[in-house]
Amino acid sequence: MPDNKNIKIGVFDSGLGGLTVLKHFLKKLPQYDYLYLGDTARLPYGGHSQAVIYRYTQEAVDFLFSKGCQLIILACNTASAQALHRLQQEYLPTKYPDRRILGVIIPLSEKVANRKKIGVIGTRATISSGAYEQEIKKVNPKAQIFHNSAPLLVPLIEEGLAGKDVTNKILKKYLRPLKQEKINTLILGCTHYPFLLKDVQRLMGKNCDVFDPGKIIGDSLDDYLKRHPEFKSSNKKTGKRNFYLTDQPENFIRLGEHFLGEKINNWETISL
């Protein structure tokens, strides 16, 4: 394992969504070096087959490991649902046995598992995988789980239309079946969706809890790092931040800087 002073954590998403996770990492664990990879040339992932999602995700983790990451977070529900298990079981043991890949579905599932009526919105690939239902039922077999795919939200968010009337109308349509089931908890099963967090909370009303997934995932990573001292960073200063994108970054940079509240200076366009 490399020098503890230079632990690099990779954060991967198809586009902007992973920034909703990275924001909490930067706040809670600023001492680490973060390498963010957004596969902006091939987003959204949610409409692709499992085979394609796995191939894209493996290419992404190959890149981040080649840059020296010891730990990678798949800050993408679609990749977590469709590729994580296979990467952990087949890819890591043969290629990088001393490194780790974590996803976002288990932390969110464990957070809400003891609720009675749980709703999930996500991409088609995430919802069709049944990953949330599987993980929640492991903890609470009696949980009632309702879900709906929301395929148009990621493209709208990537276009900078979060909070606009057109997005809110479509969001309302996606949430309506879950509201009719009178759920008391809603999982935002895509890391893009926290860009719409306040609108979702408003539309779901006071009787439904809608948590910020980034905070839950940030807390989970903090706990994981405490339990795995081999990944502990002894840096006392703020670590480095590098961003890699597979397509032209103008929209990503503009929206990302606004969301993170800081400049994105160290970025480059790459091919996978």
List the helices and strands and how they pair.
Elements: E1 8-13, H1 19-28, E2 33-38, H2 50-66, E3 71-74, H3 77-82, H4 84-95, E4 100-102, H5 105-112, E5 117-122, H6 124-129, H7 131-139, E6 144-149, H8 153-158, H9 165-180, E7 185-189, H10 197-204, E8 209-210, H11 213-227, E9 241-245, H12 250-260, E10 267-269
Parallel strand pairs: 1-2, 1-3, 2-9, 3-4, 5-6, 5-7, 7-8, 9-10
Helix pairs in contact: 1-11, 5-7, 9-10
Structural summary, described in words:
The protein has two domains: 4-103 and 215-269, Rossmann fold (3-Layer(aba) Sandwich), CATH 3.40.50.1860; 106-212, Rossmann fold (3-Layer(aba) Sandwich), CATH 3.40.50.1860. Helix 1 (19-28) crosses helix 11 (213-227) and helix 9 (165-180) packs across helix 10 (197-204). The radius of gyration is 18 Å and the shape is globular. The protein has helices spanning 19-28, 50-66, 77-82, 84-95, 105-112, 124-129, 131-139, 153-158, 165-180, 197-204, 213-227, 250-260; strands at 8-13, 33-38, 71-74, 100-102, 117-122, 144-149, 185-189, 209-210, 241-245, 267-269. The strands form two sheets. It has a six-stranded parallel sheet with strand order 4-3-1-2-9-10, with helices on both faces. Strands 6-5-7-8 form a four-stranded parallel sheet, with helices on both faces. The mean pLDDT is 95. By secondary structure, the chain is of the alpha/beta class. It is 46% helix and 17% strand. It contains twelve helices and ten strands. It starts with 7 loop residues before the first strand and ends with a strand.
